[in-house]
Amino acid sequence: MENPVLVEVTRGQLVESSHRGAFALIDGDGKTIASAGDVDRPVFPRSAVKLLQAIPLIETGAAARFGLDDKDLSLACASHSGEPEHVRRAAAMLAKAGLDMEALECGAHWPGEADVSRDMARRGETPCQLHNNCSGKHAGFLLTAAHRGEEAAGYSGPNHPVQVRAKAVIEDLIGRSLNVDVCGTDGCSIPTYAAPLRDFALAFARLASGRGVEPQRAEAGQALMRACMAEPFEMSGTGRACLKLMQAAPGKIFAKTGAEGVFCGALPDLGLGFALKIDDGATRASEALAAAVIAAALKKQDASLAETFAAMARKDLRNWRGTRTGEIRVTLPKD
Amino acid sequence: MENPVLVEVTRGQLVESSHRGAFALIDGDGKTIASAGDVDRPVFPRSAVKLLQAIPLIETGAAARFGLDDKDLSLACASHSGEPEHVRRAAAMLAKAGLDMEALECGAHWPGEADVSRDMARRGETPCQLHNNCSGKHAGFLLTAAHRGEEAAGYSGPNHPVQVRAKAVIEDLIGRSLNVDVCGTDGCSIPTYAAPLRDFALAFARLASGRGVEPQRAEAGQALMRACMAEPFEMSGTGRACLKLMQAAPGKIFAKTGAEGVFCGALPDLGLGFALKIDDGATRASEALAAAVIAAALKKQDASLAETFAAMARKDLRNWRGTRTGEIRVTLPKD
């Protein structure tokens, strides 16, 4: 049974390409508000669950110990663009525990945004591990290990207390064990565990609503969401989809992208969580769908704001001379 | 009825993402040698039919008039990477008719390959229309117009003789009229017409085999294929998939990528043509599938060479530290 087409790309009068996928919009009691496709098939959430992996940073007391502010917490949940401010802040976070980039185990890569990458080239720079989009998350991991007196080396491995804590948080929030058969290695070398979209949506709904979760864990999750919503640039970067989504309704939307066409997020005021996956992994489709799912979540309570996000789910496509050639649009199945 | 999954991307033991699509492998009489999915649905071929659009460059006598060599002809069929040699040659081709880049109507864009783009940034350069991946094709269009005494301005428009000739060649080779309802505007501003994959495969099979096509047209198509196979760098660029596919069996494989997950090609010795489309437009999938389709075409005649291409249809995927995280692989439906 295949997932429905959720995003179409047109040229002229025809659909040129299409993207299938699934999404779940869940409340804190686990009730499905809206969904499409197979939300029970295991999906690697990738970076979309960085906030969940950062909860130990708060719960262990490391964030307070090292005086992390909202921008630091946002970076700890980030897939940042490797712009100078991201790099500076990641280095500064490591320095709070007397560490430098040598401690990182995420690997180095050129910034994914072409203009950021060209700017670095113009300045004669080459990327180091601080430019890795996950460097803030890894800085958070290292600060937690330092606070707990744990050895820094090997913090990215599945058996290190840092990763064991992150995995335990996710298992608690989804109410399911994550076994080795659903374990993969992420781009930044930490373990990543596949689980149903329904589960990830529930995890974020529980944090947002405070239902089905220990109060101190809900507070930690909400503190991280507030930090990301207050400082979305640190979590993403110039022109990024997460930035645009969160800036469209400041303080109301938490939305985080993950590689291979994933998004997770929450509407804290409404106590709702969502998770989505584009089957083929396309970011252009996951970004459009995220806007549409947020619009669906807002429809009853705030029709005007819902319209703002519905408009972000459709975009004109233009060629190299600026001529409109078609559009990308979300096509949700009729209820 | 949905297209089958033809390409899978794995992480750990799971399939993380998957790509659906279709392909047709056809002989010069129109007989299907192999296929999968819906090969009758209209598909925009995009750059995959540049060779067909370049046939008038030969047939009108323009190529001979301006003394175009194989590298020039290859560039006239190219989606090149905008490397210095591509840019230099496109300018040189225009100069043969006393034209410069001001005559181009393709628009300018940064090179799509990140390292080529960074190299330009390091040199303090910004792209002009010569860097546009289609500039060689457009140079060919302008040379044809110049040879025919046609006005250069507006050569990219659907009613200009240049585009009318290109459309007529495609209609002749697929045996079907291309109407305005299947017309879109391409990235480089020329018209692009959607037709079934089966038709595009047949077009290339006819050129390769000489069957069902006027001899002088077959010769023109074969001359262009020989030029591209002899000089694949001009048609593509450093590290590009088309380069690798054609260098794996010099003179035996013509393969051309098109935007939104398309490939067209031919095996001239075997008189076969192929066309494929990945539903979601992903290039990582179209490149893997192209290798698999070529392997399928070679299986009977040359098992060893077929194995070379089958190996190119699978690739280990590694993370930022070089750790293998999974693979991308083609999964053709069982016959």
Automatic annotation (TrEMBL), chains A, B:
GO terms for molecular function: asparaginase activity. It is an enzyme of class 3 (hydrolase). Keywords: Hydrolase. InterPro entries: Asparaginase_II, Beta-lactam/transpept-like. Its EC number is 3.5.1.1. This is Asparaginase. It comes from Jiella mangrovi.
